[in-house]
Amino acid sequence: MRIVVATHNDHKVAELQRILADDLPEAALEAYEGPEAVEDGVTFAENALIKAREAFEETGIASIADDSGIAVDALEGAPGIFSARYAGTRDDRDNLELLLRNLEGVADRGAAFVCAAAYVDGERELVEMGVWRGSVLEAPAGTGGFGYDPIFQPDDAPVSAAELSAEEKDALSHRRRAFRALAAVLAAPAAP
Ligand code: ITT
To answer: Which Pfam families does this UniProt record tie to the protein (predicted)?
Structure first.
C-alpha cells in the first residue's frame, strides 16, 4: 500500500517513518511535495483531515497527516492547535520561551501533547487521537526531539521528552498513540 505522508515538518517525517515502520510495515511511505494546506479548522482532528485531504487531492494516493501541539491546563488548552505559531513566528525556540513566560509563577504545570492522525483515500476518512500527559518544566532540559520537547516532562518518563532517546519517545508519544490507533483501524477487515 502506497501512503503519502502529508507534512512539511521534517521532525514529524522522521518520527512517522519510524512509527509506521513498526505499526504499518506493509506501507510504502512517500514524501508529500505539494503546497501547504490552509489549516483553518478549529480542532486538531479537523486540521489533520484538511492536510490529508489536500495531499490526497494533489496526488491521488492514500494520504496521512498529523496535526499536533501542546495543550496547557492553566492556559485553558493554549497554545493547542496554534502551537507551531504561538509566538507569531515558526521558530520552536520562540514558542517555547513564550510558553515559559506565560507560565511564570503558575503552580499548575499540567499539560498534554495531543496528536490527531488522519487518513484519506477517496473512500474513507479516518481520524484517531493520541494524548501524552505530563507537565511543563520551569526551564528547558535536553537537546533531542523538537518543538516543546525540552520543556515537557512526561508523566511516564523520568526525564524531559528532549532527554529521551528517539526510540524511548516513540514508545510513549502522543504521535505513537494516535498512529498506532490509526494503523489498527487500517489493518482491521473492512466492514461489509
Ligand atoms: P505540518 O502542518 O506540515 O505537519 P507543523 O509543524 O506546522 O507541520 P502542526 O501545525 O501540527 O505542524 O504544529 C505542530 C507543532 O506542535 C510543532 O511545530 C511543535 O511546535 C508542536 N509539537 C507537535 N508535536 C510535538 C512533539 O512531538 N514534540 C514537541 N513539540 C511538538
So the answer is: Ham1p_like
- The whole-angstrom separation of Cα 143 and Cα 135 is 18
d(CA 169, CA 181): 17
Q: Is 67 designated active site?
A: yes
Domain 2-187 coded CATH 3.90.950.10: yes
The ipTM estimated for the assembled molecules is 0.98
> Where do the structural domains in the chain lie, given as residue ranges?
2-187
The active-site residue, picked from 67, 92, 121, 156, is 67
Residues belonging to the chain: 192
| CB of 146 closer than 6 angstroms to any ligand 1 atom | yes
- Is the shortest distance between the CB of 92 and ligand 1 below 6 Å? yes
Entry pTM: 0.97
Q: What percent of the chain has pLDDT over 90?
A: 90
Which string of b and e fits 99-132 if b means at least 16 CB within 10 Å?
A: bbeebeeeeebebbbbbbbbbbbeeeebbbbbeb
Q: Does residue 95's CB lie within 6 angstroms of at least one atom of ligand 1?
A: yes
pLDDT digits (tens, 9 = 90+) for 89-122: 889 999 999 999 999 999 999 999 999 999 999 9
Determine if the peptide bond prior to 25 is cis (ω within 30°): no
